[in-house]
Every structure is written in C-alpha cells, then in structure tokens.
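FIELD: query
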Amino acid sequence: MIQAPRGTKDVLPQESAAWQAMERVMRETCRLAGYREIRTPVIEHTELFLRGVGDTTDVVQKEMYTFEDKGGRSITLKPEGTAGAARLFIEHGLFNDPLPLKMYYLYCPVFRYEAPQSGRLREHHQFGIEVFGAKAPTMDAEVIRLAMDVIERLGVQNLSLVINSIGCPHCRPKYQQALRDFLQPKLSSLCPTCQTRYEKNPLRILDCKDPSCKALTQGAPTILEYLCEECSEHFEQVKSILSSIGVQFQVDPGLVRGLDYYTKTVFEIMAPLGEGGQMLTACAGGRYDGLVETVGGPSVPGIGFGMGMERMLLALQAQGRLAQAEAPFRVFVASMGQQAGLEAFRLTRLLREKGIPCDCDHAGRSLKAQFKFAGKLNPAYVVVLGEEELAQQLYRLRDMASRQEELLSLEQLLERLA
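FIELD: result
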C-alpha cells in the first residue's frame, strides 16, 4: 500500500474542525490589528534562502529540500516564510505603499529535512506575520503581544515569553570576536559543524543542540554586554513597553534564534505540554532590519514571527482545548421509493439554498439503513418522505434528541428549520 511520506501527515475529516477553529482565531486577531493576508509559492529560487536565511544555518546546510528543475534552475521547497515575504515585498514594489505594511500568512507549508518530532514534521504549517517599514520599539511590542493574543484566545494558558537582543551589524562584530576568544581554547572539542561556524558565524554555536557544545559555551560572554547605544536603548524601550501593557517576560542572553537575518529583538513563546513541566516552543520571531536589503531591496526594517500550527494543536490538546468536530449536516432527508428519493434530493437543494446544512441518501439504502447512517453522523433532525407524505404533500420531521415527530407543510418545515 502506498503511504504518505515519512514526516508528513494527513488531516482527516474529523480533525479539520480543530484546524478551522484555530484559523478563525488567527484571521480575526490579524484583522483587528490591520494585517492583510499574503500567499507565497511553495517553491522559491534557492538563492533567496542562501542570501536571506544564511549559508551557515542548519536550515541551509542540512535541512532544505533543494532540486534542479528541467530548466537547470536550483529550486527549494520553502523552509520558512519570511524570506518569501521579503521577496514578495520587493518584487511587487510594496515598499512604495504606505508603510508600515502589515501582512500575515496562514497554513503556510514549510519543508525541512530533519528527524520528525512531535509537532515538527518534515512538512509542517505555519501561521506568521511580517511587518515592513516600522523601526519603533512599539512595533516589537505589538508583534509579541499579537502572538500571545492568538495563543491565549485559542485557550492555551500559562505561557512563558523569553526575549533577547542580538544587536546589529555595528555592535555584533565586537561580540563575535569576544566569543571567538572565549571558544578558541575549546575549538577542537566542538562538534564538526560548530568548528566550521567558528570563523564565519560564532553565534550559531550558541544555538547548537549538541550537549557537549552546550556545555562548552557555559560562561561565554553575552551579547547584552556588547550592544551599541542604539541597540541597548531599543531593547530597554521594548522591555518597558511590554511591562506597561502587562506582558511578563524573561530576558535570556543566550537566545539567538536559528536564522541569520535576525537583528536586535528576538523572542520565543513557550506553552506547557501536559502536566509534567515539559514546554513547547509555540512561536518564535524577531526583528530583521537588514533582510530586505540583503535579498536585493531597499533598506527597510522588518519584524515578524512564525507559529507552528501543528505545535499549537498539540498545546491545545494537552490543555483539553481542541475544538470538536460538529455534525457534517443539521438535517438528513430520508426517503422510501424512487419518487420520494427525487423529492428528497429537491428538498435537500432547497434547504441548502436557505443556508441549512443537509444531505439525503445517495446509496439506495432502506429507510432503516438510512436512519442508522444518519444516527452515526448525529444530525439534529431527520425529514422522512414516503408515499403517504408525498400524497398529502407533507413532510414528517423527527427531532433526533426528543424522538418526537411532526407532519408539516413545506412552508412550516422551512420556518421550523430556519
């Protein structure tokens, strides 16, 4: 039997209600804050990610699905959403629009070749926002608060927000050199990947998941000690604004994020996964003031986040907040005989036109089998049509909860069901 590729997952009919409920909250939260939806292609030219994400990141070095198409072009399934949003912003001249430009994407497929893990599949989906053209710290606070609004409105409680500043191209080189000086005596003990990062991007070493590398970076100097005046002031204002709107947070000087385009503010939002104290990274993001320029556009600041939708469902499930599937229809029209079957089909169409979800038999079942079928799908009402009902031009309506029946005219039936 052909099965779905490892690291991918089907969404079954009974599971789609939870997805749709989550998507409604995400859309409505964005609408209230003035964000508009974008949709970018699943594939992009590989160069976009080499330049934007950074060729020293694990994403580019190890995880991208890259292939050569029939025209000899190097194409990549997008491993994240921000670079594509920046490309869209440049290609369509949106920097000429009134700024800041506030956009979001939903159910965005993201592909990464890595060992599948809980809530992080080789194909997973992200909700994200991207803002171009706003450098004020109030925008950092808005983006963080919006992410928390979405998660809290979905019903996930006890969130933990961690923030940091990773500086800018002016102050980061001094820190990188201090980090190299600290790591130089330990260089031979680092994993092979981190040894290659040592010269080009030592910050990536702080993000290494290898336990031995984590141990070797204990006691390393922190970026907060090397921030320039502008970055330091920006971070202080972000913290002050978050505090002023009641957002609790922790500063983690070791938080650097896994992509090269980040500058200044970075953050992660953690959600509890069950009662054992395990935490799940539900959302992560930050500022990327140099990204647009890096991939060929003008100098325009940016900030955003990505939220793994499968991970959000895990957090909702752990807290018993998953939306349950409703009955696929409210009314089922059962019939006996060919003529009644045709009338049942006509009535079904009429009810749908009135905005009432309904269905009828399409399998030639007996009346008893139709009731059994309807009972499994839990409609509120069943309309019964047989020879007697056709002769009287009446419709027998059964309330499936009370088991009471009524004989109604078409006008009475429509009024009752409306």
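FIELD: remark
The radius of gyration is 28 Å.
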